[in-house]
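A.,

Following up on our hallway conversation. Structure tokens first:
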């Protein structure tokens, strides 16, 4: 008996020495996050673990009833018995206060109806601010990229994080770190442009902003970012969603990975979403080298990886790289996908699969740890609910609305300004016609709010671009009477502002079934070219406000317009902001985050292509792009002079500084984006024509000069060499500092080793 007692005491002692996780309470907030995870995980059944690896969409039965109270479908009630990793978009179609109340009720139900009281992640997205009713509507990511102002982007996404958390949300399937270089791709405006460095700066600051510099996560003020789509999603062949991705490993490492790496290492993104596509034949959702090797082993990512919509199951029935749905589930699990988004035919099979292959539970535990860890980081076990009074005070705050306007003003790009057509005199009696298919119901009112009473406006949309059917919109036949009416209005006006380009129906996501969004051409649709040709023939000043979500080959617009303001897709105050630019309240300072081609036949056509790509032009086509990357005019008149470099040589252990004098010779205060590009003159592999390595946005008073300096570091000169290792090669380099990728001063230096 004494021997048995001794053994029992010994067992207790050993258990304590090992810090037995089961003796700790996962609800104890004094424990570390890892301790709390390890205390909770062993308690879960295999079914409960798998429930923490699944997200369903709220549209299957999570909504408010007529009185605003939570209403759940039988299907949802059944799912929530075991708990759930998360729910996508609960309350997206109701205002912020109503959403917060409903989501509090939903979270309470979830906590009280699973054995361990595990809260759920409520997930949103952000393309124009929080993707939900009643939030501040910002411009799209491509629009804000045109600001070339990462600090502004960080402030914008800070508002996104705050407004989302006030609704009861916790994660955001944004931002996109994809490079977009093919304007046929319908999702182009969801990303930050064609350039690696610009996208890296914008994504990093978006993640920092939405997560409240990480501190906002546990404080309950911000949400976690899920940076997507890892990797190379924007490089689909033909610009066609779900198509194959063929990309060189060198390009992948040097150009595609850096924005994701910065999101992980510098911004500490909580999540990563895998790409719909493959990479050179290997499906991303079944790619352990990508999702574990690069992401975790090389970069040290500790968050969770979520599938894109239904994509684990598609390894079987679409990608044809798995023999069965179960094999697809195992492939995704082994690759490193922690959460299955939406599917009923993938991770739902895992409990039964574990019975046949118990070793799978180790991989399941790995994923569940990551999900639980995220919920603890967000403080959901300790503070799962939203204070409704905070929502009423914080959502759509005046400061947020002003920020949307500020972002617009810094993002509008002046592509052309023949004979200083802009700005217009806000005090001169003028009749201005606001015409074209992108005129909205409040365009006229917004222009009137900016101009003096002696300026009279007439507004007419004229025609629509499509039938505006969501899934597969159709082009409309030419409406001659509508065109005649627009021309007649223009004839009786002093100045014509044409609102042209594209909309949410001419550029959108091509969903897996019953939806098209990519295009085989990038010419403006409908009779827009005819409209500008006829209006220009009247001999009146013609200003084009270009609204769009994909780059367009605007040849007729570029030829006939006296001035072009490229606005992409601005905030809810977009037309007001545009009017303020037109009447000269503020000088435009946006720069194009993409190359604007003359023809779809020039694609691929980004500024940083290999130098050898520029050897020959095309027959019967003008030289180069319509407008280069980084282009954007100003009401100021900026002169660059006196470029200098601190030393003619750099070594692997030293840095250089390049400086240039910039003078605003104009009569108006204006901001300028000074851009630095570097060209490797001779490399062991063919090298880009030039690469953006720095930029600064600086305001200049009229007549003011400033010396602007950039550091050049050895890191900027690294690239992936012949052996697929990062190299730093001795030789000649050219550094260019200027106002665009085509207009600059240059000097040279040597790298010596």
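Then the amino acids I'd put at each of the 753 positions:
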């Amino acid at each position: 008996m004494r021997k048995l007692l001794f053994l029992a005491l010994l067992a207790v002692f050993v258990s304590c020495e090992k810090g037995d996780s089961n003796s700790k309470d996962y609800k104890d907030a004094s424990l570390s996050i890892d301790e709390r995870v390890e205390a909770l995980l062993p308690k879960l059944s295999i079914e409960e673990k798998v429930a923490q690896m699944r997200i369903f969409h709220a549209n299957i039965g999570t909504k408010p009833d007529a009185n605003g109270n939570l209403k759940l479908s039988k299907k949802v009630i059944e799912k929530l018995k075991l708990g759930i990793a998360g729910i996508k978009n609960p309350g997206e179609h109701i205002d912020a206060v109503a959403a917060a109340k409903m989501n509090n009720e939903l979270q309470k139900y979830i906590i009280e109806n699973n054995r361990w009281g595990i809260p759920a992640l409520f997930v949103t997205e952000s393309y124009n601010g929080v993707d939900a009713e009643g939030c501040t509507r910002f411009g799209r990511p491509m629009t804000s990229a045109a600001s070339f102002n990462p600090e502004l982007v960080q402030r914008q996404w800070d508002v996104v994080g705050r407004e989302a958390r006030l609704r009861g949300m916790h994660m955001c399937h944004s931002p996109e770190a994809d490079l977009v270089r093919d304007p046929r791709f319908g999702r182009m405006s969801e990303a930050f442009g064609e350039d690696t460095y610009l996208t890296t700066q914008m994504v990093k600051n978006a993640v920092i902003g939405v997560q409240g510099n990480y501190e906002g996560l546990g404080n309950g003020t911000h949400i976690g970012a899920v940076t997507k789509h890892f990797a190379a999603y924007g490089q689909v062949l033909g610009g066609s969603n779900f198509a194959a991705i063929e990309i060189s490993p060198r390009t992948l490492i040097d150009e595609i990975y850096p924005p994701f790496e910065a999101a992980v290492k510098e911004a500490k993104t909580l999540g990563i979403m895998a790409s719909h596509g493959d990479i050179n034949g290997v499906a991303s959702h079944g790619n352990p080298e990508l999702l574990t090797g690069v992401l975790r082993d090389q970069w040290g990512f500790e968050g969770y990886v979520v599938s894109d919509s239904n994509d684990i199951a598609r390894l079987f029935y679409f990608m044809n790289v798995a023999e069965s749905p179960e094999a697809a589930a195992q492939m995704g699990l082994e690759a490193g996908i922690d959460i299955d988004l939406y599917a009923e035919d993938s991770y739902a099979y895992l409990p039964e699969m574990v019975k046949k292959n118990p070793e799978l539970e180790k991989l399941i535990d790995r994923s569940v740890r990551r999900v639980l860890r995220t919920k603890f980081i967000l403080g959901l076990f300790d503070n799962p609910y939203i204070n409704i009074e905070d929502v009423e005070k914080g959502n759509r705050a005046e400061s947020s609305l002003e920020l949307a306007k500020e972002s617009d003003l810094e993002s509008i790009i002046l592509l052309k300004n023949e004979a200083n057509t802009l700005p217009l005199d806000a005090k001169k009696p003028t009749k201005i016609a606001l015409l074209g298919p992108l005129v909205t119901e409040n365009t006229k009112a917004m222009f009137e709010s900016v101009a003096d009473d002696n300026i009279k406006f007439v507004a007419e949309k004229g025609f629509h671009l499509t039938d505006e059917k969501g899934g597969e919109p159709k082009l409309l036949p030419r409406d001659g009477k509508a065109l005649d009416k627009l021309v007649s209005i223009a004839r009786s006006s002093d100045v014509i502002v044409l609102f042209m380009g594209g909309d949410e129906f001419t550029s959108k996501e091509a969903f897996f079934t019953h939806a098209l969004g990519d295009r085989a051409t990038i010419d403006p649709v409908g009779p827009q070219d005819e409209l500008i040709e006829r209006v220009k023939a009247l001999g009146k000043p013609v200003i084009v406000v270009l609204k769009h979500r994909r780059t367009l080959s605007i040849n007729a617009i570029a030829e006939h317009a006296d001035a072009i303001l490229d606005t992409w897709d601005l905030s809810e105050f977009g037309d007001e902001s545009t009017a303020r630019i037109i009447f000269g309240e503020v000088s435009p300072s946006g720069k194009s985050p993409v190359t604007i081609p003359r023809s779809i036949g020039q694609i691929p056509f980004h500024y940083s292509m290999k130098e050898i790509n520029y050897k020959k032009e095309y027959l019967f086509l003008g030289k180069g792009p319509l407008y280069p990357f980084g282009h954007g005019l100003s009401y100021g008149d900026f002169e660059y002079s006196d470029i200098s470099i601190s030393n003619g040589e750099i070594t692997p252990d030293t840095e250089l500084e390049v400086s240039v004098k910039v003078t605003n010779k104009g009569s108006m205060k204006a901001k300028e984006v000074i851009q630095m590009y570097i060209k490797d003159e001779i490399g062991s592999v063919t090298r880009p024509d030039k690469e953006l390595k720095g930029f600064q946005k600086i305001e200049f008073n009229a007549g003011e000069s400033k010396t602007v300096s950039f550091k050049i570091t050895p890191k900027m000169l690294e690239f992936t060499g012949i052996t697929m290792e990062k190299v730093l090669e001795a030789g000649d380099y050219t550094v260019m500092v200027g106002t665009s990728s085509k207009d600059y001063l240059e000097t040279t230096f040597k790298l010596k080793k």
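The chain has a mean pLDDT of 96. Curious whether your intuition agrees with the design.

B.
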